[in-house]
Design a protein that fits this description.
The complex is a heterodimer of chains A (360) and B (288). Chain A has 360 residues and is α+β, with helices and mostly antiparallel strands. Chain A is built from 8 helices and 20 strands. Helices cover 69% and strands 0% of the residues of chain B.
Chain lengths: 360, 288
C-alpha cells in the first residue's frame, strides 16, 4: 500500500438539527497524519453526527471541514476521498465479498488488473482470501467486519472514518478486532477518526482521545493525559472502569471531610480559594487500598470477586453514596466489616461543585 | 368441544372455502370440455359424457356452423390475450419505475412536503376511478397533444400506470422505511452519486418488494374490466377480459366457447400467482 499521510480537521463545526437540537457545538479538532483519534462520549453526545459531517452524509450548519488541507465542507461524500466503516457493516448484500471490496474502485474506474491486485492484497491482509466469492450473509459477524474494513482500505483514501465498528461483535471478538484495526491502520498510516461509546476502546486504541458531551468537546488528549488529568467531573467520571468515586466534601484548611471521614489532602495551590467551602473530591477505585499517606475507615457493604481482584463497595457515610474500591484478591474485606484502607493523596482529584472544572 | 371436534370443523370450513373459490373454475373447465348440446341438456349433468376440445378449437380457429349464437374469429382471442399481456407488462414496467423512485424519495430523502406528497399519493387511492371516468374519457379522447387515445393500448397504459402507481408506491414505501440506510451511504462514500447509489445498491436491496409489487400490478391490470370496456372499441386494444364478453350472444350463447375463453384467460395470472405467492402475501402482510 502506498504511504498516505493527510489530516482531518474540523474548525468550529456545528450542527443544528431541524427542530433546534444542537447536536454538535463549535467542535474543533485535528487528526494528524497517521494518527488514530477516538471520538468518545455517551450515546446522543453528537459523536456520530460529527463523523457523518466529516463523511458528507450530514450537512454542516456552520464551520469548516478539511481533509488533507482541502476544504470539503460542501462537497458530496464521493468527492472527499474518504472511506468509512459502519457499525452494522453496511455491506452490499447482493454482491460477493470481492465485489463489495472492488465496488469503490470500479466507481473510480481503476484498471481491472489494479482492482484485482488491490482486493487480493487487502483480502490477504485481513484473512479473507478464501471468502472472496461468498455473499455477506454467508459470513460471520467478525468476517463481515473484516470485509467492511477491506472495502475501506482498498480505496487507499486520504482519511478513514469508523463509526462504532466493533459494537455489534461479541466481547472476545471485539478485543481481537481492536488489535486488528490498529494493526491495519498503522500499516495504511492514514489519519483515522474513530467513534465509539466504549471508553475501553477509546483508551486502548486511540493515539489521542476526544471526549464529547452534548455536542461540546470536553477534552482532547492522549489516553494517559485524560486519565491522569481530567479537566472536569464529566471526563473524570466517564474515563476509568469502574468509574471514579465522586464525593462532595467540605474543605477546612487542608482537611476535606465527608460523612464521618476526613482526609488531610495537603497543600494544593488551587484549593486555597475553597477553604470553608464544598468541593467534589475524586478518588479512583484503583487508588484506594494500595498505599499512601491518607487513610479511610469505612464499613463494607458488599464484595464482588472478579477472580483476579475484588470490587469492594463501601459505605461512605454520606446517605445514598457508595464508594467503590478495587482491591487485590487477598484483601481482607467482607460485607459488614469495617476496613481501614490507605489512600494515595497524590492521586486525589478536586472539582468545582458548580462548574465541575478540575482544581489543581 | 373436543380438539377433534374443532379439527373436523376446521376441515369443513376449509373445504367450504375451497369449493367456493374453485367450484366455479371447475364448472368452467367442465363446461369448456362439453358441447353446447350437453350444457343445455335437462336434467343437467356436471361432467361431460364425451369430453372434447371442440370449444377451444372453435374459440381459437373461428366458429364453425354449430356454435349457435356465439361468433368467434380466428385470431381475435389470441389478439386479446396479447393485448392483456402487453398492457400488464408495459403498465407494470412504468409503475415500477415511478413507484420505486417515488417510494425511495418519500421514504428516505428529507425534503419539504415529503410527507404531504405521500399523503396525497395515497389519498388518490380513496377516489374510486368511476368518479372520474367521464373526465378521464374526455382527456383521453382529446388529449392536450397528439391524437385521441381512446381504443389505444397507450391510453390504457397511461390510465393503469396512473391508477396503480400510488398503491405500488405505498407498498414499496413501507419497505424503504425498513431498509437500513447504511449500504447506500457506503455507496455514496464509495464514489456513487445519489442516482447511481439508487440504481446499483438500493434497487437490488428492494428486489423482493419490487417482485411482489410487479406481481400485484400485473394481476390487477390483467383483471381490469370496466376501464378497458369503456376505453376500447376494437381489437386494437381490447384485453381478454373485455373480449370474453363478446362471446355472450344477443339471443343465445355458446357456453363451452365462453367457458374455454375464461379458462384460457385464467392460466397466465394463475401461473404468476403460483410462482410469486409467497412474495405477494408477504408484501400484503407488510413483512416482505
Amino acid at each position: 500500500m502506498t504511504e498516505t499521510s493527510g489530516t482531518i480537521s474540523l474548525e468550529h463545526v456545528s450542527k443544528r438539527f431541524p427542530g433546534g437540537v444542537m447536536a454538535v457545538n463549535d467542535l474543533s479538532l485535528e487528526v494528524e497524519p497517521g494518527e488514530f483519534l477516538v471520538l468518545v462520549g455517551p450515546s446522543g453526545c453528537g459523536k456520530t453526527t460529527a463523523l457523518r459531517m466529516v463523511a458528507g452524509l450530514e450537512p454542516v450548519t456552520s464551520g469548516e471541514i478539511r481533509i488533507n488541507d482541502r476544504v470539503v465542507t460542501r462537497l458530496p461524500p464521493r468527492s472527499r476521498d474518504i472511506a468509512m466503516v459502519f457499525q452494522n457493516y453496511a455491506l452490499y448484500a447482493h454482491m460477493t465479498v470481492r465485489n463489495n471490496m472492488a465496488f469503490g474502485l470500479k466507481m473510480a474506474r481503476l484498471p481491472r488488473a489494479e482492482i484485482r491486485s488491490r482486493v487480493d492484497e487487502a483480502a490477504a491482509m485481513l484473512g479473507l482470501t478464501d471468502m472472496l466469492d461468498r455473499k455477506p450473509r454467508q459470513l460471520s459477524g467478525g468476517q463481515r467486519q473484516r470485509v467492511a474494513m477491506g472495502r475501506a482500505i482498498v480505496r487507499e483514501p486520504a482519511a478513514f472514518l469508523m463509526d462504532e465498528p466493533l459494537s455489534n461483535l461479541d466481547a472476545k471478538l471485539r478485543v481481537e478486532m481492536r488489535g486488528e484495526i490498529i494493526r491495519v491502520q498503522r500499516r495504511i498510516a492514514a489519519p483515522t477518526l474513530y467513534v465509539t461509546h466504549d471508553q475501553t476502546e477509546a483508551m486502548t486504541m486511540g493515539d489521542r482521545v476526544a471526549i464529547l458531551r452534548d455536542g461540546v468537546l470536553q477534552q482532547l488528549g492522549t489516553p494517559d493525559e485524560i486519565y491522569d488529568r481530567p479537566v472536569n467531573v464529566f471526563v473524570a467520571g466517564f474515563i476509568g472502569s469502574p468509574s471514579m468515586n465522586l464525593i462532595t466534601a467540605r474543605l477546612a484548611g487542608t482537611v476535606a471531610s465527608f460523612g464521618n471521614s476526613s482526609l488531610d489532602v495537603g497543600e494544593r495551590p488551587g484549593l486555597s480559594a475553597y477553604d470553608g467551602r464544598e468541593v467534589v473530591l475524586g478518588l479512583r477505585p484503583e487508588d484506594i487500598g494500595v498505599d499512601g499517606a491518607g487513610s479511610l475507615e469505612l464499613a463494607v457493604n458488599r464484595v464482588e470477586s472478579l477472580g483476579s481482584e475484588l470490587m469492594v463497595y463501601l459505605d461512605s457515610g454520606v446517605p445514598g453514596l457508595e464508594l467503590t474500591a478495587r482491591l487485590e484478591r487477598r484483601a481482607d474485606a467482607a460485607a459488614g466489616k469495617t476496613v481501614k484502607l490507605p489512600v494515595d493523596l497524590e492521586r486525589l482529584y478536586f472539582f468545582d461543585t458548580e462548574s465541575g472544572a478540575a482544581i489543581w | 368441544m373436543t380438539p377433534i371436534g374443532w379439527r373436523i370443523l376446521r376441515v369443513i370450513a376449509i373445504l367450504a372455502i375451497v369449493v367456493w373459490s374453485l367450484g366455479p373454475i371447475l364448472i368452467g373447465i367442465s363446461t369448456s370440455l362439453s358441447t353446447q348440446r350437453e350444457v343445455n341438456a335437462v336434467p343437467s349433468h356436471w361432467l361431460p359424457a364425451h369430453p372434447g376440445f371442440q370449444a377451444y378449437h372453435d374459440l381459437l380457429g373461428g366458429t364453425s356452423g354449430h356454435a349457435g349464437g356465439t361468433v368467434t374469429e380466428k385470431g381475435t382471442f389470441t389478439r386479446s390475450v396479447y393485448n392483456s399481456a402487453f398492457l400488464a407488462a408495459v403498465s407494470t414496467f412504468f409503475i415500477l419505475i415511478f413507484s420505486t423512485m417515488a417510494a425511495y424519495a418519500v421514504g428516505r430523502l428529507r425534503f419539504k412536503f415529503g410527507g404531504a406528497v405521500l399523503a396525497l399519493l395515497v389519498g388518490t387511492m380513496i377516489v374510486p376511478i368511476f368518479v372520474i371516468v367521464i373526465s378521464l374519457f374526455k382527456v383521453l379522447a382529446e388529449p392536450p397533444i397528439g391524437p385521441s387515445l381512446i381504443d389505444t393500448r397507450l391510453g390504457l397504459v397511461l390510465v393503469f400506470t396512473a391508477t396503480l402507481t400510488p398503491l405500488a408506491t405505498w407498498l414499496l414505501y413501507t419497505q424503504v422505511r425498513e431498509m437500513p440506510p447504511e449500504p447506500e451511504e457506503a455507496a455514496l462514500i464509495d464514489g456513487c452519486s445519489r442516482l447511481k447509489a439508487f440504481v446499483r445498491i438500493v434497487v437490488p436491496q428492494m428486489s423482493s418488494g419490487i417482485a411482489a409489487v410487479a406481481a400485484i400490478t400485473m394481476l390487477s391490470v390483467w383483471g381490469e374490466f370496466l376501464i378497458p370496456l369503456l376505453l376500447t372499441q376494437t381489437m386494437n386494444a381490447k384485453p381478454v377480459t373485455v373480449q370474453i364478453t363478446e362471446y355472450v350472444g344477443k339471443y343465445s350463447t355458446n357456453y363451452p366457447i365462453l367457458a374455454a375463453a375464461g379458462v384460457l384467460a385464467l392460466i397466465p395470472p394463475a401461473l404468476l400467482a403460483l410462482a410469486l405467492n409467497k412474495r405477494i402475501t408477504g408484501m400484503l402482510a407488510g413483512s416482505s
